[in-house]
Amino acid sequence: MKSTLQLFAIFLAISFLSSCGGGGKSVSEVKLIPVKSGKDFQYIDKEGKIVINPQFSEATIFRNGLALVRTSGDEPKWGFISEDGKFAITANYKSATVFSDDLAWVVSENSPPTAINSKGEIKVTLQDAETVKIFKEGLSAFSIIDSSGVKWGFVDKEGKVKINPQFSNTGNFSNGKCAVANSDGKWGYIDKEGKMLINYQFEKAKDFINGKAVVFLGIKAGLIDETGKYVINPQFSDMTDDGDEYLIEQDNKWGWCDKEGKIAINPQFAQAFPFNGKKLAAVQSGKSWGYIDIDGKIVINPQFDMALPYNGKLALVVSSRKIGFIDADGKYIINPQFDDVSDDLVTEIPVIF
Description:
Layout: H1 4-17, E1 33-37, E2 40-44, E3 50-59, E4 67-71, E5 78-81, E6 87-93, E7 95-96, E8 104-107, E9 114-116, E10 122-125, E11 131-132, E12 139-146, E13 149-156, E14 161-167, E15 169-170, E16 178-181, E17 187-190, E18 196-202, E19 204-209, E20 212-217, E21 220-224, E22 230-236, E23 238-242, E24 245-250, E25 253-257, E26 263-269, E27 271-272, E28 281-285, E29 288-292, E30 298-304, E31 306-311, E32 314-319, E33 322-326, E34 332-338, E35 340-341
Antiparallel strand pairs: 1-2, 1-35, 2-3, 3-4, 4-5, 5-6, 7-8, 8-9, 9-10, 11-12, 12-13, 13-14, 15-16, 16-17, 17-18, 19-20, 20-21, 21-22, 23-24, 24-25, 25-26, 27-28, 28-29, 29-30, 31-32, 32-33, 33-34
């Protein structure tokens, strides 16, 4: 079992250091929370009541009434449950992704990746694909291996290859654009027909959000518009979209800047999560985590081993290596008692197999 602190170190790495991730995106409000006490995951409600008993070796949040889970035992398999805890799609798969754009990728023994709908019906089969990513804006990235190495292309929801495999790496489509990398490791952006919109030139490139994208020139992050023109010149160690502002890293400290790059909250925190449209953001001051408001004022004193963004009216925190949930005043609604939580609460995992 991963330790709690190891788990959240992974969360931070995924959220802020991913070369292609969009960042700053909150998941929908979660009604049933996948948590682990002991060896198996269970689902609890917002009062901490067990709704689905412990029984899964892995579990995700519910999307459109379905959650991806993996059975326990010597030969675990992936399947999908409904909110009553019963299998809506039988656990027969050795690998699977969450549903996105109404489709999920699954792999059976000795079979290629197939995309299924919420009824478990096969809609797409990719015979030669090595790896696939979840569908975004109607397209899914997939890779093949040829004599020159790994190449990525895109397939639509009908199974038609829309963009032939040709890229060394890709992000996901957002705002009609997708970051792609060439064989030299440089990133640019394409449209849904595979046309190059912004030439290869960046060391890293994140998703377009509201017509802007964070990119890296050398080791510095800046912000470009849809023409590739800099809106904020490369000057920060990292940037993450956070609604009307950007979470930034400068001189190994985290703070916020506005849309023009002007500092809004001085970089002063060892780590931080975006506000994600909420009134409070989780920040690390010294060795402890607490919460600040949009002016940078500490509202909930640093006291936790770890703290995550608010989801609805609750935020997940870690105290004495146990996971609990607090309200907007910092009061425990669910006392620290759990050993682990699904990383799906923080980020989608785009590549499962």
